[in-house]
Design a protein that fits this description.
Layout (H helix, E strand, L loop, with lengths): L1 H16 L6
Length: 23
């Protein structure tokens, strides 16, 4: 669960940096 949380956080940050919408 912890690892999954980190992955989702990184994806959300990446999407924000690209101005996209996190799925």
């Amino acid at each position: 669960a912890g690892f999954h949380n980190v992955v989702m956080t990184n994806v959300a940050i990446s999407q924000q940096e690209k101005g996209g919408i996190a799925l």
